[in-house]
Structures are given as C-alpha cells and as structure tokens.
Amino acid sequence: AYQVIKSDVDSLIKKLQEMQLLFCPMDENGRKFYYYSIRDKFNNTKLCDETATVKAAYFIFLNKTCFNGLYRVNRKGQFNVPMGAYKNPMICDEENLRNIHSALQNVTIACGDYSLSKQFIDKSTFVYLDPPYRPLSETSAFTSYNTESFDDKEQIRLARFIDEIGASGAKIVLSNSDPKNIIEDDNFF
C-alpha cells in the first residue's frame, strides 16, 4: 500500500473514491455483501505490478470498514476480520493520502522482519515499535496477526533487539502491555 501511495496515488484515490461512493449509501445488507466480496477479492488477488493499485485499494477499504481497523489473517494467510459497524467511514482520505505521497518521495520502503531495520538505525534515528501486545488475560491471548505467533520468545528477541539499537544512541519508544497489573505474580517484564 505504501509503495502504491508513493508511486500511483492518483489511481489509488480514484479507486477508493469509487468504493466510497458505492459503499456508504448502501443499507446494512448491501454493505455486508460488498465488504465480504472485497475481502474475498483481497484474499484472491495475487500481488504483482499489474494488481498493486487495486490490491492497495482493497487493503485500505478493508482497514477503514473492518472491525476496529484490525489486520489479522487465518492459518492460510487470508485476511479474516469481520465487517465493522461504522455509519460513515472515510474510505478515501484524499488529503492524507496526498500528504503521505509527498512524505514518501525520498524514502526507501523495506518490508520484512523488524530486525532488518538495524542497518538503518543510528544516533539520529527515532524508532517506534508496536508489536502484538503480551496478553492481559486468557481471553485476550491473541498474538497472531499473521501466520506467525508473537509469543514470549518473540518478546525476548524484541527486547534483545531494543538493547542492540539502544546501544547506537537511537531514541526508542515501545508500546506493550504488562500483565502484572492483572496477574500479580507475572514477572515476565
């Protein structure tokens, strides 16, 4: 999506505007049908140069209309978040997309494991990390936003990574949850 925003924002905006014009006036049943058809198209569209813009549009549409803007996939790697209950979602925020487009013009976008970013981090870098949070209870034990689980072993790997990049002098902020406030004897952190 960021690559498309960087290189083809006009086509993306046009597609999102079309989707917004179709979706917003629909009744609840129409919206459900449309949402789940877009979700199916997103899951079945293979990403390549020819499909990148439409796949980015599907992704943004789903983000703006799914439950809580959540991104989650099943074991097959398919996006599986149900539709949210928004009265008037802004599917196409043209001003924001154009601002992001401008901001990305001299940026290299890399996709991969967070540890690959180490080569770009030095004392002039601000790093913000927002991993899947450590569960606060058994019922909130969801830590798999993709086909991999971000378990305690991954939390420890992340802590070591933070120590490494911290040694470079980078400024670092990490979001997480500490179950100690609910489970007194949880001393993980």
Walkthrough of the structure:
The chain has 189 residues and is mainly α. It is 41% helix and 4% strand. It has a two-stranded parallel ribbon with strand order 1-2. It is globular.
Total E-strand runs: 2
Structural class: mainly alpha
Shape: globular
The proportion of residues forming helix, as a percent range, comes to 40-55%
Biggest sheet overview: 2 strands, parallel
In what order do the strands lie side by side in the largest sheet?
A: 1-2
Rg: 19 Å
Number of helices: 6
Parts with pLDDT < 50 across at least 5 consecutive residues: none
> How much β-strand is present in the residues?
under 5%
How far from one another are the termini? 34 Å
**What average pLDDT do the residues reach?**
90
String of helices and strands: HHHHHEHE
Helices and strands in order:
Blueprint: H1 2-7, H2 9-23, H3 28-44, H4 52-65, H5 94-103, E1 126-129, H6 152-166, E2 171-174
Parallel strand pairs: 1-2
Helix pairs in contact: 2-4, 3-4
